[in-house]
Amino acid sequence: MLEERSAGAILYRESPSGKFYLLLNYPSGHWDFVKGNIEKGETFRQTVVREIKEETGISDVSFIDGFEDKVQYHYQRDGELVHKEVVFFLAKTPTERVEISHEHLGFIWLKFNDAMQKLTYKTAQNLMRKVSELGFKT
Ligand code: ATP
Q1: Which of 1, 55, 68, 82 has the fewest CB atoms within 10 Å around its CB?
Q2: 18 is in which domain, residue-wise?
Q3: Which of 28, 37, 76 to mutate to test the pocket of ligand 1 (most atoms within 8 A of CB)?
Q4: Does any domain span residue 138?
């Protein structure tokens, strides 16, 4: 079985009407948080900062301490089973403007409940639930 490791972020921005969370539309059709493969020698947080920049153009990101969680899943790639683990952080940005990379079909900023509905996978919804359970005001 192949092993794959990524890191990503539940990225939000504050607006007068509350927090908005960023979701990306992946080429295989699902909606998920920004994430990407860990490159050799990178810390998880370095991967997240790099991937956010590459995938959205956003360069001013700060991490919210106290949140780090991991999701795992399996998928088939070219007939081979892949076991994938993705470490997620909680991060914020003042930037609304997104320049989506060619690796994605689109993006959307959504309020907490709308983001919960838009996320394709239960693992991602569970992450958001954990964020809200932290006492973090969503
Ligand atoms: P990365 O952003 O880490 O570079 P990627 O774009 O290469 O990732 P994934 O988003 O991991 O790929 O998707 C690879 C496959 O796994 C797709 O078929 C997708 O539908 C499936 N997949 C993605 N996330 C999950 C999940 N949380 N649970 C189950 N299957 C998932």
Answers
A1: 1
A2: 2-133
A3: 28
A4: no
